[in-house]
User: Fold this.
Amino acid sequence: MPTVSEIMQTMEYGPSVEDSGAVRDWLKAHPSFGHFINGAFTPPGRTFPSVNPATGEDLARITQGTAEDVEAAVKAARKAQPKWAALPGHARAKFLYAIARTIQKRERFLSVLESMDNGKPIRESRDADIPLVVRHFYHHAGWAEMLADEFPGHSAIGVAGQIIPWNFPLLMLAWKIAPALAAGNTVVLKPAEYTSLTALAFAEICQEVGLPKGVVNIVTGDGETGAAIVASDVDKIAFTGSTEVGRAIRAATAGTGKRLTLELGGKSPFIVMEDADLDAAVEGVVDSIWFNQGQVCCAGSRLLVAESVAPRFEALLQRRLAMLRVGAPLDKSTDVGAIVHPVQKQRILDITAKAVAAGADLIGGAPAEACFIAPGYLRQVSPANPAWSEEIFGPIATLTTFRTADEAISLANNSSYGLAALIWSESATVATDLAASVKSGVVWINGANMFDAAAPFGGMRESGYGREGGRVGMLDYLTGPKVRPASEKPAGPLTAALDGAASGAEIDRTGKLYIGGAQKRPDGGASYRAASGDLVPFGNRKDIRNAVEAAKKAGKWAAMGGHGRAQVLYFIAENLSLRRDELAKKHGGKAVDAAIQRLFYYAAWADKFDGLNVQTKPGYLVNVIPEAFGTVGIVCPNDAPLLGFISLVAPAIAMGNSVVVIPAQDDPVAAFDLAQVFDTSDLPGGVVNIVSGPKDELAAVLAAHEDVAALWYCGIDGAAAVEKASTGNLKPVWSFANRDWTGAAGQGRAFLDHAVQWKTVWLPYGALPAGTGSIVY
Ligand code: NAI
Assistant:
């Protein structure tokens, strides 16, 4: 035992280990677990161990779920759902509240269990994870209470299948279960195979609070069990995990009508500007990627540092790195715990070795016994290095320098991911400018890993889609007012007539596409006979590519702002009304009149589709901002050639997107007539591009195109193919049934909801509490 004066000399912390007695007693009473189905635990089946990665000891045995287990769980959830949804919001709120209270009472127990099962330091599970779990259930108890008032006309989706990873086991469970239950859904959740214990402890809490049977079902097991959930009779899949599995789930659910939200990987930029508070930024690195073993999807794993301050920043970083304590997760003075599993440790070491072989310098990052790896970072990592783009998912950041803000943005966005971005600058102007420019679902300014149940979290691009948290997150567990589908006239057979087959004059008059604000001959010059008898252009793959290029160049449209875009939409409506009688003769007066009204409607919305300023904690300005996707592909119904077109194009462009539209296959003339109206209405070239031709062939090209950020597809039969074709860049695909476009179902907020992606920007103001780093507890 060291003497007090010896301790004073070294200033080393002595061990301060959290008591694990209560957890060990619980584990002794539960040597092996079955699933939690219909309110009861099933007898254990074929089991595998859940291992403490810090010590290698087996904690308990977990059952590998079979397809039959999944089916039983889904059946229980299905049976319980109508009753659960029919409960008054207040009754559901009371259950969620009771869960929150009970978890709060067990905070210490659950933190210790989490740290033992996952390897994360008790500081993280006790101070961040579990308090956030509690906050999630309280927050969503509130949404249950207010559901009828705040989401009129909405109802639960049904049964949600939820698959979660191992990095935040109980927190991910809360993120998934709390909103689902608040909205009236029932769930079948699968925890990750490495970390199922807190989910099973949660199941006991469900029993304890008397949650109706079947509302929450927990099935344990590995990826096979997960795949069985995806294939089962659920109405929605909510998945958090790797991009690779996310893609497989996208492909498996294509065309099934199952709603899907994906929260996938990231390679988030951590931008340190010249004027940053470097000490704070270094502390941000610690919070973002070192304290949690880097096992965080939104870790700021790519450090981008202004060249002029890089030497000083690195000196501070290395000094801090040397002070981090790696060790026993249950020791309260441990900063960095164990990696979750030997497989994961090996992955981290492999990618790091590849990065070093490609020329990067590794500072720190040495492997140690068991599942430990010392934190570190790789220097001189260029975009060509594998560590630039591959998720390391360990406590190893990369460091790259830049010279100008423009270069910082282009490096930040040089990634297929778009989950989070961290920005360090003392200048509000610089920081907010960067925040607007980065492509990510979450932006943290001068802080890291700030989470709250009220603040939506989720990604863009290959980081997935859908949001968890707050009002926006609730929408992902609700269905909007029901729309009566209208049968759609099937598109007629389409045969291309080559140039020579029709008279040249005829083709010159009618056979042009609309790309980049100008008429363009289709590639190859083919045309086909529309239902109206006109010859119309037969677009192909190359035309779609040209149209996407033109749409990309129309980026300034979003920058015009809502008011500017509204002016153009009003002007289109005005010019359309000038040609009302002429177009009414061709396309019907009712359709033209409704189109004029619809343009007014979306012009009205253009400057009123507001973001939110959400209540998280005092001291944080948290804005949730609707952002345009960029280029949206739109596949129009074959019916209602004029009104269907306007009903889809107007909301998409009102929100600042540019669009590539496949008009009604049988009768695209209406779309080209509208293009003439656009030309006289100050609509910048490239905002709307029209490629007529074989609907599903062209739709597949749009779906697979990397630069089309979202796709709307009207029609049911072709939905499966476009959803499957979209797995490459994981774009959100909104497929919906044809409807009566003249009626109320033809317009509304739902169209706008699908035209934006949400960016949550956190801006702390005032001084952060001393010594807490920047994590919001
Ligand atoms: P993973 O994506 O394989 O596992 C996540 C969850 O999905 C687990 O519950 C797993 O059992 C389940 N799963 C696996 N295959 C499935 C399938 N075919 N169908 C349905 N469910 C399936 O992630 P893994 O292997 O644990 O980690 C690999 C890498 O994924 C990590 O190194 C990291 O890069 C990334 N990752 C990202 C996470 C995030 O939060 N975005 C979380 C965990 C991992």
Q: What stands out?
A: The first strand starts at residue 36 and ends at 37.
